[in-house]
TrEMBL record:
<protein>
    <submittedName>
        <fullName>D-alanine-D-alanine ligase</fullName>
    </submittedName>
</protein>
<dbReference type="InterPro" id="IPR013815">
    <property type="entry name" value="ATP_grasp_subdomain_1"/>
</dbReference>
<dbReference type="InterPro" id="IPR011095">
    <property type="entry name" value="Dala_Dala_lig_C"/>
</dbReference>
<keyword id="KW-0067">ATP-binding</keyword>
<keyword id="KW-0547">Nucleotide-binding</keyword>
<dbReference type="GO" id="GO:0046872">
    <property type="term" value="F:metal ion binding"/>
</dbReference>
<dbReference type="Pfam" id="PF07478">
    <property type="entry name" value="Dala_Dala_lig_C"/>
</dbReference>
<comment type="similarity">
    <text>Belongs to the D-alanine--D-alanine ligase family.</text>
</comment>
<dbReference type="InterPro" id="IPR011761">
    <property type="entry name" value="ATP-grasp"/>
</dbReference>
<dbReference type="GO" id="GO:0008716">
    <property type="term" value="F:D-alanine-D-alanine ligase activity"/>
</dbReference>
<keyword id="KW-0436">Ligase</keyword>
<feature type="domain" description="ATP-grasp">
    <location>
        <begin position="145"/>
        <end position="236"/>
    </location>
</feature>
<dbReference type="GO" id="GO:0005524">
    <property type="term" value="F:ATP binding"/>
</dbReference>
Length: 248
């Protein structure tokens, strides 16, 4: 469910697992890896419209290092690689057996994220995470919601807005939440995102489009818990991990 708080203010409520998770690990296959690359976003302040958007991404290199350390514990050679203009060239030079793809943005744009799996498929290098189609859909809220509607999956009513000055559809009802259309994160979603009047909503829309230069969606705000679900396929079984975000 959409919320009025940012990701930075969220904490995940941990529920004790009733059973120990057992992953299907092929230890013989692990020994065959010559090199695994952990790819991460190359974050430069000038690529982001606001400091908050920059700060939401700036810790990605630390996460990549943490992941690489865990891989190294398995006895697998590993290196980290930023998703910058040299990314594809470095892939061709290193020729890794696998890329753990942690790239969220390229030049500060979520919309360019599908370029990474595209490069990996072009180089015929296996990788983790979603492919091009999944990232294209997941980084476009307008497209995601229209697909949900096409398959009769309930989603709050919304309006897709491209231009400053667009009138807000009053049939949506109040309160409303305004979100950037591009991206899967919470940039632009904060204590000011939920509006109780159409005038305030329009001002918020104008501000976001002017600041980020991308369309927004205006959505009927639905109060309720926000659940993050991760599905991990280990080749033998699909594991589902769920966590509720608690906003304070």
């Amino acid at each position: 469910m959409p919320t009025a708080k940012s990701e930075d203010e969220a904490q995940v409520k941990k529920t004790p697992s009733k059973e120990k998770i057992k992953l299907n690990i092929d230890k013989d296959a692990l020994k065959k890896f010559r090199l695994v690359v952990v790819a991460y976003s190359s974050v430069q302040r000038e690529h982001f419209a606001t400091r908050s958007a920059y700060e939401a991404e700036v810790e990605v290199e630390e996460r990549a290092i943490e992941v690489s350390e865990e891989i190294r514990k398995l006895g697998i050679p590993v290196r980290t690689l930023p998703g910058d203009q040299y990314f594809y060239t470095n892939l061709l030079v290193d020729k890794p057996d696998l890329v753990v793809n942690l790239v969220d943005t390229l030049k500060g744009r979520d919309q360019l994220q599908p370029s990474v799996p595209a490069a990996l498929e072009l180089a015929n290098i296996p990788y983790t995470g979603a492919g091009m189609e999944g990232l294209i859909i997941g980084n476009n809220r307008n497209l995601t919601k229209r697909l949900l509607m096409a398959y009769d999956v309930h989603t709050p009513p919304f309006q897709f807005v491209r231009r400053v000055g667009t009138s807000i559809d009053e049939d949506l009802g109040l309160p409303l939440i305004v979100k950037l259309n591009e991206g899967g994160g919470s940039v632009g979603i904060n204590n000011h995102a939920v509006k109780e009047t159409y005038r305030a909503t329009k001002l918020r829309v104008n501000n976001l489009i002017t600041t980020y230069h991308i369309p927004v969606i205006v959505e009927k705000f639905v109060d309720g818990p926000e659940i993050t679900v991760v599905v991990f396929d280990d080749g033998g079984k699909r594991h589902v991990f769920m966590g509720q975000k608690v906003f304070r």
